[in-house]
Amino acid sequence: MKITIFTSNQPRHINLINSLSKVSKKCFAIVEGKTIFPGQVKDFFNKSFLMKKYFKEVDRAEKKFFSNSKFILDQVNTKFIKHADLNHLKKSDISDALKSNVYVVFGSSFIKGWLLDFLIKNKAINIHMGISPYYRGSSCNFWAIFDNNPHLVGSTVHLLSKGLDSGKILYHALPSKKFNDSYEYTMSSVKSAHSSLAKRLKNGSIFKYKPIKQNFSFQIRYTKKVNFNDNILRKFFKKKINKKNLKSSLMKKFDKRLFILPHII
Fold first, then answer.
1. Which of 61, 75, 185, 191 is least surrounded by CB atoms within 10 angstroms?
2. Could you give the CA distance from residue 229 to residue 221 in angstroms, rounded to a whole number?
3. Measured on CA atoms in the order 209, 211, 160, 98, is the torsion positive or negative?
């Protein structure tokens, strides 16, 4: 099995690359570079004191779960590009990476044009960090915590489509029960998505799943990058979310019937 991954350059993205490379005969990674100091350097997110404070905690949680994901393994055929340059690529630029059996998208910029058409035709798998159809768009697990909906923190593994996070769903992967705060809780859902996908690709079970069309009437939020700002972070920090409150809310709200799908990991 040959796998091609379209992703970014944070430890969590490197973890996916390395995890899938271990279950494939040949692995290609198209890696978009963003700053590894969000909040400190203006890039995808703005530079500010509150952004720096928030992403410092995100970085701590990420290192806890992906401390071994500092470098991409040697066996991976890797192409590095600048963030948002993905749609400027020509077929000839990544021709070898377009001969795979499986295509996975995780944390890349929004894909358009010929590449999107190619990936849809080849039933590319997208990992959306958020529980669709309830939360779609950007920073979805943050918003689930912000809305006091920790039972809707997790990931959605679905088929790539032209609409953002709107493709037919294969399964949902939920966070680990072992966490110390909201940052670790949300980051553990990333690891759950990676490990579950690697396992299901290796044993072939994911190819037997029946994709389920999303019911957008269940949508709670559709968020964009601009919605995640200093004003929202100021309100978030005032909430003083702790482990006890998270677990209490989970006990009250979690109901698997929310996930009207055949597969919950």
1. 75
2. 16
3. positive
Give exposure, 15-53, as e/b (b: 16+ Cβ within 10 Å): bbbbbbbebbebbbbbbbebbeebbeeeeebeeeebbee
As a dihedral over the C-alpha atoms of residue 81, residue 227, residue 164, residue 191, rounded to 10 degrees, the angle is: 70
What residue ranges do the domains of the chain occupy?
A: 2-258
Considering the four listed CATH numbers 3.40.50.170, 3.40.50.150, 3.40.50.2300, 3.90.320.10, the one that applies to the domain covering 2-258 is 3.40.50.170
Pairing outcome for strands 221-223 and 135-137: parallel
- pTM confidence score: 0.93
**39-55: per-residue pLDDT in tens?**
898 888 889 999 999 99
Structure tokens given for 15: 């973890």
- Residue 262 has a pLDDT of 47
